[in-house]
Design a protein that fits this description.
Shape: globular
Largest sheet: 3 strands, mixed
Helix content: 10-25%
Length: 97
């Protein structure tokens, strides 16, 4: 599920994930492609922590599986792009004021 703010142009796409695999989170290919085309970053949230994937880093994902997955609702197929989980440290943000 992708969330975006409705006020003005969006520079960040918010993307919640429920699972992590070997220290990586997976994002559907069409979410990554759409963010790249729009010049946006993706903010991934997992168990209350957040990680920001800058638009420059979206072009080099890992792929642990090379197969396509069928949408649960039959709306199409997608691949998963995997990104190393590296959450934002809130303490570091407060140092950058």
């Amino acid at each position: 599920m992708v969330f975006a703010d409705s006020i003005g142009p969006v520079s960040v796409v918010k993307y919640p994930v429920k699972k992590m695999f070997r220290g990586y989170v997976s994002i559907r290919d069409y979410v990554v492609s759409k963010a790249i085309r729009a010049g946006q970053s993706i903010e991934v949230e997992y168990e209350g922590e957040k990680m920001v994937l800058k638009k420059e880093n979206l072009t080099d994902p890992e792929m642990f599986t090379k197969r396509e997955f069928q949408s649960q609702y039959g709306t199409g197929c997608y691949e998963l792009y995997d990104f190393k989980w590296n959450p934002v440290d809130d303490r570091q943000e407060s140092l950058n004021l």
